[in-house]
Design goal:
alpha/beta, Purple Acid Phosphatase, chain A, domain 2, 341 residues, 6-stranded mixed beta sheet, single chain, 8 helices
């Protein structure tokens, strides 16, 4: 069975086999990727497809991934059309994985790994064959309203759910260089969540200092050319949410980003697109919009771009640069940016 048919089979089963999360090293080899691209280029699609998308010209050997968060609305509002759009783009561009930093489940998280919300918020929505890839995920504040351990344990149910801990890192190979993505658990870093024990019962149980020690050790040990940190909550953003959230995030995380030369910090939570470069900072702060419902936004000090449409972001990396494309629910590229070094 070839890759595409195999993925279609997984789609029909909602990717809930008990095969575990491991992938063979051969499946990730460059030769395998070359064969997969050849298969993709030779594939024809029927007349049922929508109008052709205008996609960016991306070098064939780039590492590509989607950034998608604040998703779970049981397919309502713009969630299902945006999920289908992600699949259509993944048909044409070699998307290797999805980074999903939190709020997969509005509004109260999940109760267990058998919670029906896994089907209606995730499996049945992101069911396109080309989205049957690794999803590197995190808990957002809405997951912290429910059973956060179930969010971690879901990796034993779903082949593509790659979250194995509350915070972790993943190294990816480029041509000659590497990129390392550090996934952090931001809700426990914010005091207002820790104080609301009834609403966010697990937040106050997590050690802030243990996570900070892990992050500093992981950043210090990283030999990757590109270092990207992602979490649910922003450090800088225009939002009506409490300023204390961003103050806590800056207090705990910003010194480590600056000290260890992190290139980008990626987050969600605000439900709009923002690209901010604070004065004196070398970090690009990227706020990804919601994959379902969006909110109004305005420019603040350091804003390079902002937009209030729902959608997702496409990242494309090579040895020389990291490029991202902010895409709305109709497939229009609203903004693109390249960081080179």
């Amino acid at each position: 069975m070839d890759r595409r048919n195999y993925l279609r089979s997984l789609s029909a089963l909602f990717a809930t086999t008990l095969l575990g999360g491991a992938t063979s090293s051969a499946a990730n080899s460059r030769s395998e990727r070359t064969l997969e691209r050849a298969d993709r280029a030779a594939t024809r699609y029927g007349d049922q497809r929508q109008a052709e998308l205008t996609l960016p010209e991306i070098p064939e050997d780039n590492l590509n991934f989607f950034l998608a968060n604040d998703l779970g609305r049981n397919g309502y509002y713009e969630q299902k059309p945006i999920a289908e759009l992600m699949g259509r783009i993944a048909e044409r561009i070699d998307i290797e994985f999805v980074v999903a930093p939190g709020d997969i489940h509005h509004f109260n998280g999940v109760a267990s790994v058998q919670d029906p919300l896994w089907m209606t918020n995730y499996e049945q929505i992101y069911s396109h064959p080309d989205l049957m890839i690794d999803w590197f995920t995190l808990c957002g504040n809405h997951e912290y309203r429910g059973n956060t351990q179930a969010v971690i344990d879901y990796g034993r149910v779903s082949r593509r759910w790659m979250m194995r801990a509350r915070y972790y890192s993943k190294l990816f190979e480029l041509d000659k260089e590497t990129v390392e993505i550090f996934f952090i658990d931001t809700t426990p870093l914010i005091e207002r969540y820790r104080e609301k024990e009834e609403k966010y019962p697990d937040a106050g149980l997590q050690s802030v200092e243990a996570q900070k020690r892990w992050l500093e050790g992981a950043l210090a040990a990283s030999k990757a050319k590109w270092k990207i940190v992602t979490g649910h909550h922003p450090l800088y953003a225009d939002t009506s949410k409490s300023e204390s959230e961003r103050m806590d995030m800056r207090r705990h995380i910003e010194p480590l980003l600056d000290k260890y030369g992190v290139d980008m910090y990626l987050c969600g939570h605000i439900h709009n697109f923002q690209h901010i470069q604070p004065a004196g900072s070398k970090v690009d702060y990227v706020v990804n919009t919601s994959g379902s419902l969006s909110r109004k936004v305005k420019a603040i000090e350091g804003t390079r771009f902002c937009n209030d449409e729902a959608g997702f972001t496409l990242f494309s990396l090579n040895d020389e640069g990291v490029t991202f494309y902010m895409i709305n629910g109709k497939g229009k590229i609203l903004y693109q940016y390249t960081r080179s070094k």
